[in-house]
């Protein structure tokens, strides 16, 4: 597969946005074309790759142009090895193990990949120079009917003009069987939308969706961000061929822009540097399935060097998170054990056996409390997550009540097996999704973690049995066994990859700007590698 990597940058940057398209992908489906998406991974050393993101899936298309862009930090002084994988997705499971691999390419950020077949991946990298986004609400009226037995299934595509070419910047959802659709509000980075130029030509296409990929054009119009901002505004959708053939032709419907505004998009660092505290809580699994801690086969067995998988995972993640907490005092709990003196099963006992003061000093304090607690408890069961999730959620709710972005809570759960209280855990996660909180789950050992992947909800929003959906995805699950031979930072990067986005999405949904904005950093010009 050939990969074309084109840079649209003039200086060394900190944040790069990648736009991806493909040509001539092979067809894996018997009666139709493939349903591709692109997965971006980065080499973190030791032969390990961490997923940085994935595009949306496009149905029945061998030459897809993906609307969803992928972002990563660009470091001039570091060789950043990237891998682009194209998969044909045929099911709703979040993993890629049972999906068809259509092809891929590897390169360093700043250098093109090598040819490896007939198909091509084209990646355009663009610097995100500012934190502004374009937010829009759009609807349409009296669109042409395109379906023989129905109306139309319209969707919109926005393109910006660059060097005489049209580049896709946003694709809306499809509204089924509707000639007067109202699309969801959407946001696009200003730089991506129009290269920061309010007068850059913008093309908008309205099309009728067909499941076989042969979408029918309803109409198109040309505008600019400056014109779109003159809301409310109406634009006539023109079908070029109809306009040529029919003298009485007026339009194929109108697109109405209800909202078009440029807003500031705050970053994770904006909130942290503005004073937001990351409150880190740890939950350790003491269920019987871990095995007798005195046996070398146990996941809780302390080796002659005094470590095990639990402690290695704790150090990897905690050493990164603790830098965002000013007092370095972390509450730590155990669950699934019989606890002295009454030997009742507890699913949220303080690791230091001080229920009124469960705080440990730094990650080393948690390690010390764990080593002291291990011989004092009896491993039991079952594996219940809901109590400790609800425990942290109560503190997150108190922080939310203050209505300021001053605190965010991260719960790290270290466990050896699938959750037992599935329904209660789903409900706890759904409730917590409305609060300033994230849940990280690291699975140790070789158990079946399918239930954990469902909680992760990368394949769609998590729902309770009653049908209540999570307000946002707050769970990140990573099996430790994938990182056993990788550098410590590889596990931390994979585990913490989604926390910044989760934090920003919560505060943005609440409409909370950072408490105090830091001064803009000085920009030092640097030469960008030529591609």
Can you describe this structure?
It is built from eleven helices and 26 strands. It is an alpha+beta fold and 531 residues long. It has three domains: 2-127, Immunoglobulin-like (Sandwich); 132-264, Immunoglobulin-like (Sandwich), CATH 2.60.40.150; 279-510, Rossmann fold (3-Layer(aba) Sandwich). The strands form six sheets. Strands 17, 18, 21, 22, 24, 25 and 26 form a seven-stranded mixed beta sheet that branches. A four-stranded mixed beta sheet has the order 1-8-2-5, with no helix packed on it. α5 (309-321) packs across α10 and α7 packs parallel to α8. It is elongated and about 90 Å long. The model is unreliable at 6-13, 112-116 and 518-531 (pLDDT under 50).
Helix content: 10-25%
Low-confidence stretches: 6-13, 112-116, 518-531
Specify the CATH class of the largest domain: Alpha Beta
Q: Assign an overall shape.
A: elongated
Keywords for this entry:
531 residues, Immunoglobulin-like, Rossmann fold, 7-stranded mixed sheet, 4-stranded mixed sheet, elongated, disordered C terminus
Task: Please give a quick description of this structure.
The protein has eleven helices and 26 strands. The chain is of the alpha+beta class. It has three domains: 2-127, C2 domain (Immunoglobulin-like, Sandwich); 132-264, Immunoglobulin-like; 279-510, von Willebrand factor, type A domain (Rossmann fold).
